[in-house]
Design goal:
It is built from four helices and eight strands, in the order βββαααβββαββ. It is α/β, with parallel strands linked by helices. The protein has two domains: about 70 residues, no CATH class; about 70 residues. The strands form two sheets. It has a five-stranded mixed β-sheet, with helices on one face. It has a three-stranded antiparallel β-sheet with strand order 1-2-3, with no helix packed on it. About 15% of the residues are buried.
Length: about 170
């Protein structure tokens, strides 16, 4: 009696559709999705390609772990952690701006490598929900301040940055 081998191709990990065989990489079978046409392996040997890697990286960042400590904990390269953090950050959408709210604008001064390379974080915070509605990282210029203050157009601005918001009418500095 002949031996019949039944092969079940895995479902696509991106869109959950059927896949077809698409060559080999080394000894591992590759599959391509019939719908989204992305190529993938049935089982990845490297930890960076796991389905929950981005969620784990985001959880570690929220806990305050550094890039190298995340790489060590997840057994992946530090460069991979940085690339994933950038992708996660790019996928974050700005929240909807509510009408007639009070927004607080503030800034934070920090340094990159040494004290001569200063960097400013300027952000607008919705006072009612405590949600950051906009932020800008860079130099402390009126142009960067204006980018943040143009977002909450429908409300009142409050700030403790004296003299920097003179160009905005109706700003409450107190």
């Amino acid at each position: 009696m002949p031996f019949i081998k039944i092969v079940v191709n895995p479902k696509c990990q991106y869109c959950a559709c059927d896949t077809i065989k698409f060559g080999k990489t080394g000894m591992d079978q590759r599959y391509r999705c019939k719908q989204c046409r992305k190529i993938q392996l049935a089982v990845y040997k490297k930890h960076a390609y796991g389905a929950s890697t981005n969620a784990e990286i985001a959880a570690h960042v929220k806990e305050g772990c550094g890039i190298r400590s995340i790489a060590r904990l997840l057994h992946i390269a530090a460069g991979t952690v940085l690339c994933r953090i950038k992708k996660i950050a790019d996928s974050i959408k700005k929240p909807a701006i509510a009408m007639e709210r009070v927004y607080e604008v503030d800034e934070l001064k920090t340094f990159i490598k040494n004290k001569t390379k200063e960097c400013w974080v300027i952000y607008a915070l919705d006072k009612q929900s405590n949600q950051v509605v906009d932020l800008k990282v860079g130099s402390r210029t009126n142009k960067n301040l204006k980018r943040v203050t143009d977002t909450p157009v429908a409300g009142q601005l409050q700030t403790n940055i004296y003299g920097r918001f003179a160009f905005i009418p109706g700003t409450d500095t107190g």
